[in-house]
């Protein structure tokens, strides 16, 4: 019974600290080419080695934080003028917006995962994003896009293509009320 009470007490003391921990905002900041924060002396920015960028990255980010009124940390260099910056107690979007307003910053964006998306190279795919189309404009393949208020019947094929691109040994045809046998995709040379 005493083990249970100890475990309960430990959870009661630790869980609030974990749940109530301040969020960590993480953004990518690119300094303007003429920013005085790029050099320790405030002179002209010069090409720097990777090791020098790593050692000065934190100092640059901390100086930017002092100027912006937000304590920043990390400073890992991504490039000669790009660094990762972190702050506690605010959202990443709020931090990016605040830092983007600074005169030394070219841009600041939320550091987030990006995923590649498979899009076909079919010239008809991008002809038009949503119906109805103006007269004389090709309709495109709107039905393959993600559904929205205008095209609720779209099938979101791009998301499926991210999972698999199929196989050259499988042929699929969707037949509607008719077939255009002269269509280039149905020519014998395709099979």
Main sheet, how many strands, which sense, barrel? 4 strands, antiparallel
What name does CATH use for the topology of the largest domain? Answer: Alpha-Beta Plaits
Percent of residues in helices comes to: 25-40%
Structural class: alpha+beta
> Got a strand count?
4
Total number of helical segments?
A: 4
The largest sheet has its strands arranged as 2-3-1-4
Q: Low-confidence spans: pLDDT under 50, at least 5 residues?
A: 1-12, 15-20, 41-47
CATH architecture classification name of the largest domain: 2-Layer Sandwich
* Outline: elongated
Mean pLDDT: 74
Distance between the termini: 73 Å
What's the CATH class label of the largest domain? Alpha Beta
Model description:
This protein has 191 residues and is of the alpha+beta class. It folds into two domains: 2-110, Alpha-Beta Plaits; 117-191, no CATH class. The chain has four helices and four strands; from the N terminus they run H-E-H-E-E-H-E-H. It has helices at residues 2-19, 50-68, 92-100, 157-163; strands spanning 24-31, 73-77, 82-88, 105-110. Strands 2-3-1-4 form a four-stranded antiparallel beta sheet. The longest helix has 19 residues, at 50-68.
Quick recap:
The chain is of the alpha+beta class and 191 residues long. The chain contains four helices and four strands, in the order αβαββαβα.
